[in-house]
Each structure stands twice: as C-alpha cells, then as structure tokens.
Fold this sequence. Notes:
By secondary structure, the chain is mostly helical. The chain has one domain (24-109). The chain has helices at residues 10-41, 54-58, 75-82, 93-99, 101-109, and strands at residues 60-64, 67-71. It has a two-stranded antiparallel ribbon. The longest helix has 32 residues, at 10-41. The protein starts with 9 loop residues before the first helix and ends in a 5-residue tail after the last helix.
Amino acid sequence: MTSVTLKSYRKQREKEIIDNLKRGMSRAVLIVENQAKKNVSKTGEEHPQVETGRGRASITSKVEGLEGTIGTNVYYMRIQELGSSRQPPYPWLFPAVEMKRDEIKDALKGKFTI
C-alpha cells in the first residue's frame, strides 16, 4: 500500500506568531515610553511644567500577554496630559504614540530598528 501522511504544524506556528507578537509589543511599548519621557523633558514654551523630573521618572511600561501599557502613577501627570479648568493641557503621552506610529507598526511586524 502506498500512503501519504499529513501533519499539521498549526500549534507550533501559532506559538511562533504569538512569541513574535509579544517581542514586538515589548519593543513598541519601550519606543512609546522613551518618546513620552523625551516629551515630558521639553522645557520653555513647549512644556513649562518640568521642575523636578519626578513625573518623567514615573513613566513606565509593561506588557501582559499581547497588551502593552504605558503610563504613570503620578496624579499631576494626568492633569498635564489632559489639562484642567485652571491649567491648559501639555500633552506628552498621546503625542508620543503619534510621533512613533511608524516605528510601532514596524515593531509589531517584527522589524526592529536601533
């Protein structure tokens, strides 16, 4: 008897794809975190709120599964980003994502640049 054996490598390929996405997500959140820190570091008219560097130092990122989070636990950083009734906004996080949009896409595709 002549026969052909077919074998699925689906599980191995799925694991490869997920591992690559996790690496890409880790790289993407670091790209945004670094740009956000640069944005907060601006001085003068661009970002007149910088005084101690506490806010910049509080910006962190983490990846859980296929989800990345960039943020801070310092309350006044939220006010800087969004503004308040007494203070205009000085955005630092959302512009970081916009500024690095292409690099984020490349990182998620597995194209890492230095």
